[in-house]
From TrEMBL:
Xref: Gene3D superfamilies: 3.10.450.50
Originating organism: Novosphingobium piscinae
Domain SnoaL-like: 6-129
Superkingdom as given in the UniProt entry: Bacteria
Protein name: Nuclear transport factor 2 family protein
One Pfam entry name: SnoaL_4
Amino acid sequence: MTVCPLEDRLALHDLTVAFAHAVDRMQDAGEVAACFTEDCTIDLTGIGMADVVTGHAGLRGFYAGAFAANSHLAHIVSNLAVTAYDGETAAVRAYVTAMARGKDGGGMTVHGRYYFGARRTADGWRFTGYTMDFLLPPG
């Protein structure tokens, strides 16, 4: 792997934080989509949550549904690592503790790992998508 320069490492870190903040603000699914490329693919089947979601429209629809169903969301992201880098694309792995309180009174907590793909664009780094798996199994 080519060594990831500090400025790109920080930009990828900031993008990860911007994504988590946009989700937790629960204000605008477009704000979440702005962290991603237009051709993004989100696959949460590894944690049994959703079908594969593609593109900004699919992403906005998925997060608009999550915002409508929940009263609170919190994503605590840590242990970020750039695991691949070639100057134009990168892979980022991060731990996440994701908590949701549903409007129906239910809730859930997921202790997992994000696996983001990223690409340098004219507007800076954007995620091309992500998958997740469990760090700790539910239960």
